[in-house]
Amino acid sequence: MRLHTLRLEAFGPFPDRVDVDFDELDQGILLVNGPTGSGKSSLLDAVAFALFGDVPGSRRSLRNALRSHHAAPETAPWVELEFSVGPERWRVRRAPAWDAPKRRGSGTTTRPASVRLEQWREGQWHLVSSRIDEAADMVTDTLGMGLEQFAQVVLLPQGEFAQFLRAKPEDRRALLERLFDVARFDAVERWFAETKNERLRASEASLEHIRGHMTVVTDTLTRLDDDELPPAVWSDENVADLPEVLRTLLAALRGRRDDAGTRAAEAAAAANQAERAVERAGALLALREAHERARTDLDSWPAETVTQMKNDADAADHVAGVLRLAQRSGRADKQLEQARARRIETAGALAEITGLEAPGERHDADAVLPAEALKARSQALQALQLHLPRALRALDDVAAARRHASAAEQKAVATRETVGTAKEEGERADEAVVVAEETLSSLPDVRGALNAVHAARRILQEVPAHSRAVTTATEARDAAVATFTEREHDAVALRLARLAGISAEIATDLTPGNPCPVCGSCEHPNPATASPQAPGPQAIEAAERAARDADEKRRRAEATLAGAEQAWASHLAHLQARLDDVVAAVPDGETSPAGSDDPAEALVAADLVDDDSALRQTERDLNDRAQRREEAAATLEKARSAQTRAHRGIATAEKDAAAAVARRDGAKEALAAALQHLAEAESSTLQFVSDYTDSNNSPVLRGTTLPEGATDGTSVVATATGDDDAAQNLADEEHEEAVRTRVQQLARSVDDARRQLTAIDRARDAFARADATFRTAATQSESAHAELSDELVAKGYDDVEAASAVALDEDELTSLRATWQHAIEVRAAAGATLADDTVVSAAHSPAPDPARLRRRADIYARRANESSTEASRWARAYEILDSMRDRIADAVREHLPVAQAAREMSDLASTFSGIGENTHRMRLTSYVLAAHLETVTAMANERLHHMTDGRYQLKYTDERAKGTARSGLGLVVVDAWTGRSRDTATLSGGEAFMASLALALGLGDAVRADSGGMELHTLFVDEGFGSLDQDTLEQVMEVLDGLREGGRLVGVVSHVTELRARIPSQIEVRKTSEGSTVHPIVSGFAVSGAV
């Protein structure tokens, strides 16, 4: 990888534009110099920010303050970097999120972060990505490393490797994990830890299962409350002995259960005997009581009384038939009288309505009025009644035909006028369509622009939610940074406190006769003592763990903030795309949507976040245009509809005119036919009137003849079909009305005659029914009297009164029969009881004392119940423990292998996590990182050997750390002058710088080799040269000169004055009260265009 150009503006301490051409300054070694605080490291931050969108190391907390405070408020911050990887050349431009002043009003609006990644192909730059997350992934894939690795391999940070040199093994682990991928080994550690926890939980669960069973056993023994039983004592350690403990306990319980069962059986037998004695006494008393009740029943129903009841019931049964026939004869006589009265009534009604003489009892209905005569007249009148409406309909048809003919003639005249009017309206509609089409074509279609405005407004409504998300994430990140700073400060304070009392820790390991590791003396006259306030390793480890946790939370908060900012930027980009659609959709030749000269300037997404008036004005303008076009379209549609209706009206009018002429001719023909039909109807009416008159030859019935003149058929027919002038007379409406009146009068007369015939027919039917009922009742009465006389003779009674003297009604007879039957049953039961030898014997036996026997039986029953309860208690306890024995045995068999597996996995997990039987207290990942650290020290020693004239070499050590601290990533320095190893903290400032520089270069080589061996043509070393003397500086410069091999550019960031004379290519950073500036220098001469 090689850097080519760096451009930036309003970034860090640089308010103005900065251009750095690394190709022009490439003479192997490049010095970036300037006073402290001028912004030398900020140039390296700009490189990291351009590539990864973030700044490395401890300066990461400043990511939200990247914009220069010296820049003008409206100047946007940005960084652009050109670099190459192999044959590919890339350009990336990034802008951090910043608060820009609003274009309208006061205040600021947040502009989101953005990125533009381009690749040089075919002689020009091609956009590859403008998405922050996608561009970051592509840069990482192209470089083969992330920000952490890049910061250690390309931008060797100031002071951090000196800290790495002196750090504890666990602190070195944090850096090495970020540079070398040990995720799969960390996953192995986590798997063993998680599996250990799972198996421990399984072991505890199975043990808890056993505890639950043993709780049942313990509760059961507690309820028994027997001190002679062996105790069920056990613990988690001797769980394997539980089956034997339960076997012994069950043997003791079995004996107690059997003894209690025997006692319960004996008590139950005694209680049964006492209860049977009580039952025998009760049975004896019941027999004595039955004997007494039997004698009382016999005395209550004497035999004479029972015999008399039987005789009375038989006599009542004997006369029951006579009484039933007497009642029937009476009912027949009553019905005969009712039928005679009804016949007399209906005969009078028939005589009144017909005018005939009332018939006697020997005459029936046919003798008075023959049915055939009445039927003939009714049929003739019905035929006439049905025909008259046809004559009226014929008159209606003639009137309707005349009206239709007149209306058809008028319609034919009117339709001819309508045709002319419709043609005039059609011409006017054609002219209106032409005018509306011209108006619509003059108005542009802005629906596309309006849809884009609506889409933009919907997106704009979601902006506050994204803004709040960024604000919330920013606050959370700031809080996490503050917490991390506080926790890190606490950890550093504890480390310093421990270092202040390190002599006391060393003194704890001093023994008489052994040399002191500090001074080498074998005598220790006054060893230091530890202060009570001195922190221990556990407290320091807890503080460091809290700092790491806080750092992890800070990282997560920063990731959340980056995601929120990305979503914010994406949302604004989406909004801007919709606004661009608005501008693109405005028709050519039209003004901009917001009324300004430059549509793109009028609608900028960021400006609309706090003030969307321009978008609202654009929407109003487009709505006005759309409304005018819609109105013109509606007018055109109405004109076309009117045109269609007009032309359709012309066709309809012409069609109606032709139809009207046809209807007029048809109406005339219909009128002629109606007149002919009327003549035929009058002729038929005359015939029906004649038929009815002929049917009147039977005896005259009052009210059934037609009125005078109704049968004069000649007068009716003559008015309709008389002489040759009949057709002319029918044309006269007054003549037709006279004919209608005559026919209606005839119809009313027919209706009256019809009603009269109906009344006569009903009266005749009523008389016929009454006569039939009378004759039937007379027959039934005669028969009932004959049967009654026969029954009286058969029973031996002279009349009905004699039979009634011994009769009983039905209820009395039923009651007498029931009483007699009850008396028979009571006497039979009493006799059977008195004849029973057992009852007789009981009656002559002494009376028992049931109360005394009951008290005795209750005492025995209570004793049996107590014995049974005790036996059940022991039996239940035995059943419970017996069932628990198998369950506990099964649970123990399942628990033992689970517990063994948990112990084995716990030992393995402890070993992999650096505790337990792990001699060096080295984690698995530390073991892997130790291999990488060995490689790093080997590569670092190649340069350290040259810089120190072979005196010093770094050496990896896995010596076990003191206390509970983990080991495995230790470093010591080997001094060839003394031949001894010592702690890296004993190096002087210059020696520590050389060791740190060699370590940083070795770490960079190792990381590069681990990431695929990509060649790095640019390297920056940040600070530390001020601690070197002249000779050491010379040796360090020789090492840096060696790094230039293969065309590599080595950048040295330092304010040391001696380096200015040794390195001709420089980037001088100057600071002023108005911000810093950058001045590139090649061979002592300033490069043109320096800023």
Strand order of the largest sheet: 10-14-15-3-16-17-18
**Nearest-angstrom radius of gyration?**
66 Å
Helix share, percent: 55-70%
Mean pLDDT: 77
Number of strands: 18
Helical/strand content category: alpha+beta
Q: End-to-end span in angstroms?
A: 26 Å
What is the overall number of helices?
Answer: 30
Shape: flat
**Fraction in beta strands:** 5-15%
- How many strands, what sense, and barrel or not for the largest sheet? 7 strands, mixed
Low-pLDDT ranges: 589-601, 697-703, 708-730
Could you characterize what this model shows?
- A hairpin with a 4-residue loop joins strand 12 and strand 13.
- The strands form four sheets. A seven-stranded mixed sheet has the order 10-14-15-3-16-17-18, with helices on both faces. A six-stranded antiparallel sheet has the order 2-1-4-5-8-9. A three-stranded antiparallel sheet has the order 11-12-13.
- By secondary structure, the chain is α+β, with helices and mostly antiparallel strands.
- Among the domains are: 370-435 and 659-746, no CATH class; 447-585.
- Residues 589-601, 697-703 and 708-730 have low confidence and may be disordered.
- The longest helix is centred in the middle third of the chain and has 82 residues, at 613-694.
- 66% of the residues lie in helices and 9% in strands.
- Helix 8 (242-300) crosses helix 24 (810-834) and helix 8 (242-300) crosses helix 25.
